[in-house]
Amino acid sequence: MEQAISLDPSYAPAWTALGAVQFLGGSRERAGDAFRKAVELAPQSVDARLALANYQWASGDTAAAEQTLLAALSIDARNAGVHRALALLYLSTQRAPQAEAHFKALASEPGGQLALADYYTGMGDRQRAMSVLQSVEAGSDKSEARAAKLRIAGLEYAGGRKAEALKIVDEVIHEKPKYEEARIAKARMLLIDGKADEASAEAHEAVKLNASSPAAQYTLGLTAVARRDAAAAEDAFEKVLKLNPRAAAARLQLARLQLARGETAGALQAAEEVSRQRPEDVEAAVLMSRSLRAQGDLPRAERELASRIARTPDAAPLYLEMGWLDLQQNKVPAARKAFEDVLRLAPSSYDALVGLITVDLAQHNVNAARGRVAAWQQRTPDDPRLKILSARVALAAGNKAEAEQTLRALVSVGMRAIVGNLVGARRNALEASFHGSRPHRPFMVGQQRHDSVPVRVPGQNRPLVVQAGEQLTGRQGQCLVDSVGGDELLETVKIDLHAAQPDPVA
Q1: pLDDT tens digits, residue range 70-118?
Q2: 3-state DSSP call for residue 500?
C-alpha cells in the first residue's frame, strides 16, 4: 500500500486503504493521519469522508464522526451510506428522534421500509410501524412481505394478542417451511412466554435450516440460557461469534455466563472488547463495572462509570450501577443521589426503588423506607415485588410477625423448606450487611469461590441466584444475603446451602 502511495501520493483511495490497514494493525494515530490525508486530497469524496467517520466513530469520537458525516451529506444529500451511518450513530448515542429523517431517506432502498418500521417499533410508535408494515405486506416483493408479516406478528404479540401473533407466524411457516426467520420469531415468542423447551425446539429447527444464521444461533443460545444449559448456551454464542466476530450481543451473553460462574477476568475482557467495538454501549459499560466490582477493583469501576456517564448522561442503567458501586464503597449519600437520578430518567424503575430503600435502611431511616413502599403500592397495588420489599422493611424494623405474614403469602411450600429461618434473622446482622461493616467475602461451594451462587430450590423450576452479602458463616453453611435474583421471590433470606444444589447457570 505504501508503495502505491509512493507512485502517486495524490491518490486519495490509496490513503484510505492505508488507513484501514494501519487501524487493523493497531496503529490508530497513523491510521487517523492517513484517513485525514485522503479527505484533504479529495475533499468532495463521500467515500473518503465515510472512511474518516468510521475511524472517528471506532475511536470513540462520535462528535467528530457526526460532523464528518454531515459534511459528506452536504456533498451528496441522497447518499444511502451516509444516511445509514447517521441513523445508526444517532441510535447508538441515545438520540433516536434525530435518526428518523435518515431512516425515511433510506425507505426507497431494499429493506428500507422494514428498517423504518423497525425504527418506529423501537420508538414505541405502533401505529406508524403497522402502517409501514402493512404497505410492505401488500407489495409485490414476497420476501419483504414475509418479513413484514413476522414484524406484524411481533407487534400483535407485544400488544397482548399472543394467539393472533402465533397464528400469523404459523401461517408464514406453512407458506414457506424452510424460512428460518419464522422459526426464530416463534422461538422468541415462546421464550418470552416462559416455554423454554418449545422455544428450544423451534430454535433447533431454525439452526437446521440455516446453521450459518447468526440470529438462529443466538436464539438457540437464549433458549439454552432459559433452560439452564450453560454448555449449550456458550456453544451457541461462540458459534455466533465465529459467524460474526463483531456480534456484541453474543459476546455480552458469554460475559454474563462467565461472571455468573465467577470467571471475572473473562467477563471483564469480553466487556472491554465490546466497549472498544461500541464505545457508547451502555450494557457493556455496566457489565464491565460489575466485573471490576467482583474483582474488588472499585476505583477503576468508578472511573469507568464516571467516564461513561459524562459521555451518556441520560442512560439510567449507568446511574443504577453507580448507586450500587457507591453503596459497596459505603458512600451512602452518593448512592442516594445516583438512585434518584435513575428515577429522574426512568420514573418506574423498580431497581432504583430497591436501591433507595437500601439506602434508607443503611441510614436507619425505616420510616422513609416504609413511605416509599407505601407510595409505590398505591400506584401498582398488585405488584408482588412490593410486598417483598414491604417484608424486608418490616424485618429491618424488627417487626418479624409482619414480615412472616407477608412472606408466607408469597413463598411456595418448596421455598419454605430452605427459608424457614427467615423470621429468625437478627436485625443487627441485616443492618451490618447494608453498612458493609466487614469486607465482602464470596460464597464457598466445594473449592470454588462465588460472588453469586445459583441454587436449585426444591419445588421450583428455575434456580435462584443469591448475591453474597457481608454475613457468611462456614464454608457451605448458612449465610445472610442481600438479594435473591431469578424469580425474585425474596429480597433478603437466610439460605442453607446444604439444602440447595449448586446450579451451573445464573
Answers
A1: 999 999 999 999 999 999 999 888 789 999 999 999 999 989 999 999 9
A2: coil
Residue where the block lists cell 490508530: 28
Cell triple for 405: 405474614
DSSP string, 94-133: T-GGGGHHHHHHTTTSTTHHHHHHHHHHHTT-HHHHHHHH
Please write the tens of the pLDDT for every residue from 4-15: 555 556 778 888
d(CA 274, CA 328): 25
Q: Which residues pair with residue 444 across a beta bridge? A: 449
Give the predicted TM-score (pTM) of the model.
Answer: 0.65
Query: In one letter, which amino acid is 56?
Result: Q
CA distance 334 to 339: 9
Query: Helix-strand-coil percent breakdown of the chain, rounded to 5?
Result: 65, 5, 25
The contacts found for 1-6 with CB under 8 angstroms, 24 or more apart, are: none
The dihedral built from the CA positions of residue 110, 87, 52 and 23, taken in this order, carries a sign that is negative
Q: What angle do CA 273, 276, 280 make, to 5 degrees?
A: 120
